[in-house]
Specification:
Layout lengths: L1 H14 L3 E7 L5 E4 L4 E4 L1 E2 L16 E2 L8 E11 L2 E12 L1 E6 L2 E7 L10 E4 L7 E11 L5 E11 L1
Antiparallel strand pairs: 1-12, 2-3, 2-6, 4-5, 6-11, 7-10, 7-12, 8-9, 8-11
Length: about 160
C-alpha cells in the first residue's frame, strides 16, 4: 500500500507545477529596420487604416518611423524571456501586406502571402516547437506592396516553472 501511494505522489509531482501564461505583443519596444528608407529604431505606433480589421488584445499596429506609406520590406524584431519550460505558444499576426515569421533564427510555420490585415484575429499559428527556455527572439519579415503598411502581433506563451 505504501508503494502505491508513493507512486501516485511522484506522478503528481512530475505532472504538476507552477504554470505561467504571458503575452508578447507588438508595441514601441519592438525594433524595426525598414530597407526602403534605410531607417531603424524602435517601432512607431500606427493608427488603424481602412481595411485593417485585425484587433489583438494589448497589441498595436506598428512599423518604422516615417515609413508608413513606403512600399518595400521591413524587419521587425523583439526579444523576450521564457522562465521555465515552454508548454505552449500561440501566435496571432496581422500584416499589410505579407509576412514570414522566424523564432530563434528558424523559419516557422507562420507566414502569409496575402493580406492578413482583413482577418479580425489575424493569422493564428502554433509556434510552440520553436520556443526555448531563456532568451528568445521573434523576427517578422514584412513586405508592403504600397500604400499604408504595418504589422500587429500577439504571442501567448505558457511555461512550467
Amino acid at each position: 500500500m505504501v508503494f502505491k501511494i508513493l507512486t501516485f505522489l511522484s506522478i503528481f509531482i512530475m505532472t504538476s507545477g507552477v504554470f505561467l501564461e504571458f503575452s508578447i505583443v507588438s508595441d514601441e519596444s519592438s525594433w524595426v529596420y525598414v530597407a526602403s528608407t534605410l531607417s531603424e529604431g524602435n517601432a512607431a505606433i500606427y493608427t488603424t487604416q481602412g481595411g485593417w480589421a485585425t484587433k489583438l488584445l494589448d497589441a498595436s499596429w506598428i512599423g518604422g518611423k516615417n515609413a508608413m506609406n513606403v512600399a518595400g520590406n521591413s524587419t521587425i524584431t523583439k526579444f523576450f524571456y521564457i522562465a521555465g519550460i515552454p508548454e505552449s505558444g500561440k501566435l496571432s499576426v496581422g500584416a499589410d501586406d505579407y509576412f514570414t515569421t522566424y523564432i530563434n533564427d528558424k523559419t516557422t510555420n507562420c507566414r502569409i502571402d496575402s493580406g492578413s490585415f482583413t482577418l479580425s484575429a489575424g493569422r493564428l499559428c502554433d509556434v510552440f516547437s520553436y520556443l526555448v527556455n531563456g532568451l528568445n527572439k521573434i523576427v517578422f519579415e514584412v513586405k508592403n506592396g504600397g500604400g499604408p503598411g504595418g504589422l500587429m502581433f500577439r504571442l501567448v506563451v505558457t511555461s512550467n516553472l
